[in-house]
Amino acid sequence: MPSSRSGGPLPFLDHLAADSARFRTVLATAPADARVPTCPDWDADDLLWHLGEVQWFWGEIAERGLTDPDDLDAMNATREERPADRAGLLAFFDRSSERLHRVLGGLPPETPLWMWSDDKTAGYIRRRQAHEAMVHRVDAELTVGERTPLDCRLAADGIDEALRIMRGHEPEPDLTHVPVSAPVTIATVDAMHAWTVTPVRITGTWNGDEIDVLRFLVSDGPDDAAAAEISGAAADIDCWLWNRSVEGEISRDGDAAALAAVDAVLADSID
Prior knowledge:
The chain is α+β, with helices and mostly antiparallel strands. It has helices spanning 12-28, 44-64, 72-76, 86-105, 122-144, 152-166, 234-241, 256-266, and strands at residues 175-179, 184-188, 194-206, 209-220, 228-232, 251-254. Strands 1, 2, 3, 4, 5 and 6 form a 6-stranded mixed sheet that branches. Helix 2 (44-64) runs parallel beside helix 4 (86-105) and helix 6 (152-166) packs parallel to helix 7. The longest helix has 23 residues, at 122-144.
């Protein structure tokens, strides 16, 4: 993970607090019916409710110390109804955000907690929620037209998470993966890190369901076998991987088929 290579571990809780606060500030005065360009079905109040619910959910898991997925139904039964007005939405967000930060801050990173990913720890929930807040901060800023810079190191870590966890694939006994193109290098011009991805088609049975999806096999660094390269600032590449608009230029060079295969993986939403 890039965060461990320069400057020490990332302060995910600090980023969670800062980006949650920026998200709230931006939306507090936004028109309730302002459309969210990156999530066209949502208006500003929908976005505010969404992140509040997300932060409530993970704060509840952390506060209860849940590790068993069978306990989630009972937990979800305690969810609050959506408030009817902006004041109620802001109050719900404030409670959810404050608790999430406080409870995660009181747990050792290695604390076991339920998580949908393979890393089922409080440490990964810190990381995931820092990136969740950052991405939705971008959504909020785009809603009102007030874009501000993203932290370079956090964005580089976001690229790593998006490639390896959100869009990545690790070989599984019941799944088959077949490359659909040559590898492609994805490089940051400011964070001094690169990854090589191979788009693969994954088929088989997963949790009782037949699947047929496109994902990435991921390795660190450039690769001589790469047929193309995509490069740009870490913030722009992170936003691009989340299907968010970028501020700078992302360069694409090399084999057109390999670049198209990368685009095909990104066509699946991870909102």
